[in-house]
């Protein structure tokens, strides 16, 4: 902005006084001198117009017509998403088995269509997308959801993430039931948050109680939560998140497209139909 103002001032000065630098005969101006004066005027106008444009345009975009700025940002995001989808497409085609890892799966294990979902049980937007996916699964029998439990909020999400992964060792159906229960109920309260030193233990106990409600063997579940399979799957979740530059939840990969955020039912269905 500093140099823009300097150029503006120089352009104004050139416009007002530039003609003085050209020696002319007052009775009979030379053609060359006249041309030089016109050139100086033209250059000064270009400098003034360019500087004013650089000063006014940002103000116009932000205040006068913010929709233009939004369109520019949207266009940039679309280009970034296109590049990201190329990377996703290349990896998914060759590494489906590695991506699934030890994750719980909703639906038929051999379904033709696959949705990968990075989710956190303490994330309200994840609850929203879970509801949308439940609608999709009710309407489609050719879709499976691979649940990648992304534990990113410490004590708030560690025990639920581990429990649902461990529940798969008893059955995918019971893992799905526990997942649904955790998304439907508040498994911690604001009172629990007051003493953070005990928060993890309180959530752990509540998760085990919910596991019992859906028919899981809580003692075996607690043992499996500390086991190799759960540790390996959590590592896989983090590795895939890093590969696809996933920093938050929810995040979906549908077929060969990436979708950050809680996308609605119709958008999920459109992606499945491509």
Written account of the structure:
The longest helix has 35 residues, at 66-100. Strands 1-3-2-4-5 form a five-stranded mixed β-sheet, with helices on both faces. The protein is 64% helix and 9% strand. The protein is elongated. It has eleven helices and five strands, in the order H-H-H-E-E-H-E-H-H-H-H-H-H-E-E-H. The chain has 274 residues and is α+β, with helices and mostly antiparallel strands. Helix 1 packs antiparallel against helix 2 and helix 5 crosses helix 9 (218-225). 28% of the residues are buried. The two termini are 47 Å apart. It has two domains: 2-64; 87-272, Glutaredoxin, CATH 3.40.30.10.
Q: Which percent range describes the beta-strand content?
A: 5-15%
Supply the CATH superfamily name of the largest domain.
Answer: Glutaredoxin
Instruction: Write down the secondary-structure element order.
Output: HHHEEHEHHHHHHEEH
Shape: elongated
**Helix percent band:** 55-70%
Which strand order do you get reading across the main beta sheet? 1-3-2-4-5
Tell me the domain tally. 2
Q: Which structural class should the secondary elements be placed in?
A: alpha+beta
* CATH topology term of the largest domain: Glutaredoxin
- CATH top level class name of the largest domain: Alpha Beta
If you compute it from the alpha carbons, what radius of gyration comes out, rounded to the nearest whole angstrom? 31 Å
- Terminal CA distance: 47 Å
Mean pLDDT: 85
